[in-house]
Amino acid sequence: MTSLSKSLTFACAGAVLALSAHGTATAQEYSLRFNHVLGPGEPFHEGFQKWAERVEERTDGGLQMDVYHSSQLGVEEDIIEQIRQGANIGQNTDAARMGNYVPGIAVVNGPYFVGSLEEAFALADSPTMQEWMDELANDHGIQVVCFDWVQGFRHFFTNEPVRTPEDLDGLRIRTPPAPIWQESIRALGATPTAMNFGDIYPGLQQRAVDGAELVYPNITAANLNEVLSHANETAHILLINFQVVSAEWFNGLPEDYQTALVEECRAAGQETSRVIEQATQEAKAQLQEAGMTIVEDVDLEAFRAAGDAAYEALDLLEARDQVQAEIQD
Which residues form the signal peptide (predicted)? Predict the structure, then answer.
């Protein structure tokens, strides 16, 4: 072996030893493509980008997240199935869709389940919630990273005023395609119609639906006030979003990467949830200025009473009461 060959051999060996000395985590990079249905102007998109930046910074670039808005990677239900198969992809979703796998967890997006950000954040300490999340991961391959992303109160947006459940009779209201959504809207008086978020605008134009139940920033971001005239403040669901990834992929991460992903998810989520509280008021004012009628004199007691039928239909009354008791202790 020539002296030059020997030098190269020793240099390569030294590089390998140096890399090993820093631990295996630095020797391999991990990536996550994160998908959500909302537009680039929504507060959640900026929040997800902050989450990604902080994870990358905290792992010295070892775990890189790319955020895709407006369902650029595909329809939510399809993404969740890819997650279950182990793909390095994530999705912003909700308890209603998770309820397709673990029925009990759907209560989180049931009518009038929680009434404040503090109650929503306290769900992380619920033993029952933890059991459901373990079941999602172990039996269905879905790892919940966190669910501190609260999108605000959902209201009915229509082209006529709604003050009581009876006012919704005969109206086809767009909802996501999950049992708790369908039963909630049915219990509150309307006819639920499953439709993807991106199809709402043309669906309203073509009169495939008569309205939607969404949060205020959804309306301004998607210009839905062009096809809807009334915001009826039923506040029937405080929308809690779940950030999910593949359990197989998550378990393959170094432990400190797992911790970074979870802790930064919670921090960015809680920050974004408070930003949305302010954004909601701004969106409401913007819509009112644009001519949308805000119906505030809603019979909330009648809607709360009607909402119980959704839990009864899905046999979730006991689960609801159990979790509510745990977060109020």
Answer: 1-27
